[in-house]
Design goal:
The chain is of the alpha/beta class and 696 residues long. Helices cover 38% and strands 19% of the residues.
Length: 696
């Protein structure tokens, strides 16, 4: 929830989460500590940022009473600071059974830390209680895995009993535990490969990565015995009969190496696991595993903002001016030369986490502090933000020699995270000359980094020049969308590229004859008091997509597929205002007025329409006299109530002027009866006419 400005963070009867984990162990302690690590919040029960902070007992209890998310972090802190079971129970209502269990874990860990030494029995007990190698190593400042391997202290692999003990259960549904005497399964150490799943659904990682995992399983079955590690109970990939063996367990280098040790697996697949896999690539390769597809070295270059920027300079590929933030004086010198706004970008993150646009020195210093906290091991890169530019990206597949790709264009201008943007295939504003230049850049980077498998390459286009801003050496969240737009599974193609090659010595840009548009799904109504706004950090929680014979045909159907969007009624008004993209807002107003809608705007932040006070506009929204709100810009001091009233009353809210203009044209085409209703197969019949542009 830290992504959402002004959001009310307490947990109550209204659901706010967008995903969940399921951990399995042979004791509460083991399963509980696993589950915390599975959340991918970079924290454990103990020795986390809150646990080691200066927070007092009273402050921790206050957070618990407020029902803050991740309550267990505050319970551990409260216990550390001397809170009693009764005090915690009074502030949380959590059964004392669980409070005592958590207290025992903290007491055991604190006593162990004081000893500063470890024997075999103590190590086994720590592992049975669910403590990770990282936590134990941190306490003792030693490499605990090395000791575990030397002493052969390894978890046992157990089958999950799907028949509740009534009959012998024979399943391929596994978990690891230290509370066992023997393995339930003896593995044939042959041609196995381990796919790493994407873990818990969260902003940036949702069903699209599960689609990639299932596609991987189906494709790799032709070459390997396929094993899978994942832990999300919501996903198809964690159905126990989907792979040869499913390990329902946490995703960490510790667990992957343990499973590899047990099964004899040497190859792991990371490119459909979102950011969690790429973050592990280097460590896994250093420990003797083979990263299937693109090497860990190349992944590290792409993920490390500084290293990647150096590669772009080496290849004479345009990128926005940048600097690696090694000290504040260099940053200030950069600002003096290039000015604001600037983009602060940490390395090894997903969904734009802690990526911020700074427009002044106060914002700059605050955001640098946040970025170094989220990715402390890697340098933060600060780059000049190119305003009023077009954003586009390639979803592609390479074998290191040639590549095949699809160009996604964003409807909104650059500065809106790709997960929150409206995407269109094929490109609409970008001309073919720029598209070919983008293809050339994709080919150069594919060869330089020896990319084998999927990649996502992001650009901004300013004054007809494409500038590279990011390269992800994995599937992106738009891979299913791109695959469906061209009727070609890009994960299947990735396996073909890795195993057999593409047979290309060029970049093949695929452009369908029909249009496909993806629209983001937001959950503003569920996030009490959050200010609805768009920026470089992702906030959407889902998406929809539609096909059409024209751009507007696909756009309006895609937009209408997202809740709570609907066509405005003729007896209702439309409110349009803002302080950015004013020409687009004005054009939207004129189009909608031409369709006989009553168009209003807000005085002081007006665009096109009859001017209203903020109070009057708010009143009309609450009375359901407004059926659509189109706005642009960050105006929290002026229009907070307008935006909140809109989402709280399920009135469609468009937060970008360029999108508002295009939706207005889409409404016009809908009213004129120009919308098509075809099955996907009917669109795919045009496949024979699909453009395949070879770029050398």
């Amino acid at each position: 929830m830290q992504k959402f400005e002004n959001v009310e963070k307490s947990i109550g009867s209204e659901m706010k989460s967008i995903g969940e984990v399921m951990s399995i162990g042979r004791s509460f302690e083991e399963a509980f500590q696993k589950a915390i690590r599975m959340l991918d919040i970079n924290a454990e029960l103990i020795d986390n940022e809150i646990y080691n902070s200066n927070m007092s007992k009273e402050e921790a209890l206050k957070k618990l009473k407020e029902r803050r998310e991740y309550w267990f972090l505050y319970i551990s802190k409260a216990i550390k600071e001397g809170a009693s079971d009764d005090e915690i129970y009074e502030n949380t209502g959590i059964d004392k059974f669980y409070i005592k269990k958590i207290r025992n874990l903290i007491s055991f860990y604190e006593e162990f830390k004081k000893k500063k030494l470890i024997d075999e029995d103590l190590l086994i007990e720590l592992k049975r209680l669910g403590f990770s190698d990282n936590a134990i190593s941190k306490a003792l400042n030693i490499d605990i895995r090395k000791i575990r391997v030397e002493k052969n202290i390894m978890p046992k692999i157990k089958q999950i009993d799907t028949l509740a003990g009534e009959w012998p259960a024979i399943t391929n549904y596994m978990y690891t535990t230290y509370k066992g005497m023997e393995d339930d399964v003896v593995f044939q150490k042959q041609r196995g490969i381990l796919i790493i799943g994407s873990g818990v659904f969260r902003i940036g990682v949702s069903v699209e990565f599960d689609w990639g995992t299932v596609s991987l399983i189906d494709s790799l079955k032709n070459y390997y015995d396929v094993y899978l590690l994942n832990y999300n109970p919501e996903t198809v990939s964690t159905d126990w009969d989907i792979a040869k063996q499913l390990f329902f367990d946490e995703i960490s280098s510790e667990k992957i190496l343990d499973i590899a040790n047990k099964t004899g697996i040497k190859k792991v697949v990371l490119f459909s696991s979102g950011q969690i896999g790429n973050n592990l690539a280097k460590e896994l390769e250093e420990n003797g595993l083979i990263i299937y597809g693109t090497s860990a070295k190349s992944i590290d270059i792409a993920e490390n903002r500084e290293k990647f920027s150096i590669i772009l300079d080496k290849l004479n590929i345009k990128q926005p001016p940048w600097i690696s933030a090694s000290n504040i004086n260099e940053v200030l010198k950069f600002i003096d030369e290039f000015g604001f706004p600037v983009l602060i970008r940490p390395s090894y993150v997903l969904s734009g986490s802690s990526m911020k646009l700074a427009y002044n020195y106060e914002e700059l210093l605050k955001y640098i502090k946040s970025a170094t906290k989220i990715s402390p091991k890697y340098p933060v890169v600060i780059s000049k933000f190119l305003e009023d530019s077009i954003e586009a990206e390639i979803d592609g597949v390479s074998d290191g020699k040639g590549a095949i790709g699809i160009l996604n264009e964003h409807v909104e201008e650059a500065g809106i995270h790709s997960g929150d943007s409206t995407m269109v295939i094929p490109h609409k504003k970008i001309n073919d000359g720029i598209a070919k230049e983008i293809g050339k850049i994709g080919l150069m980077l594919s060869r330089e980094l020896e990319i084998k498998g999927p990649f996502n390459l992001q650009f901004v286009i300013k004054d007809s020049n494409p500038y590279v801003i990011e390269l992800n050496l994995r599937q992106s969240r738009s891979f299913p969308f791109s695959s469906k737009a061209i009727n070609m599974n890009l994960i299947d193609l990735s396996i073909k590229a890795i195993e057999n090659g593409l047979g290309l010595n060029a970049f093949e840009l695929i452009r369908p004859k029909f249009f496909a548009v993806k629209s983001p799904q937001f959950s503003w109504a569920q996030l009490n008091n959050a200010y609805p706004s768009l920026g470089v950090e992702m906030k959407s929680t889902g998406e929809s997509a539609s096909f059409g014979l024209t751009f507007y045909d696909a756009l309006i159907k895609s937009w209408l597929s997202v809740s709570p969007n609907k066509l405005p009624r003729h007896n209702k008004g439309i409110l349009i205002y803002g302080n950015r993209n004013l020409n687009d807002l004005n054009e939207a107003g004129k189009i909608l007025q031409g369709l006989d809608y009553n168009v209003y705007t807000i005085e002081g932040i007006e665009s096109y329409g009859i001017s209203l006070s903020i109070e009057k506009a708010s009143e009309m929204i609450l009375k359901k006299q407004i059926d659509l709100v189109i706005t642009d810009g960050h105006l929290i001091e002026k229009d907070f109530n307008i935006r909140r009233h809109a989402v709280n009353t399920n009135i469609p809210l468009i937060l970008n002027g360029k999108l508002g203009k295009e939706i207005s044209y889409g409404i016009k085409e809908y009213k004129e009866g120009k919308i098509t209703y075809l099955e996907n197969s009917e669109y795919y019949k045009m496949q024979s006419d699909m453009d395949k542009i070879l770029i050398y």
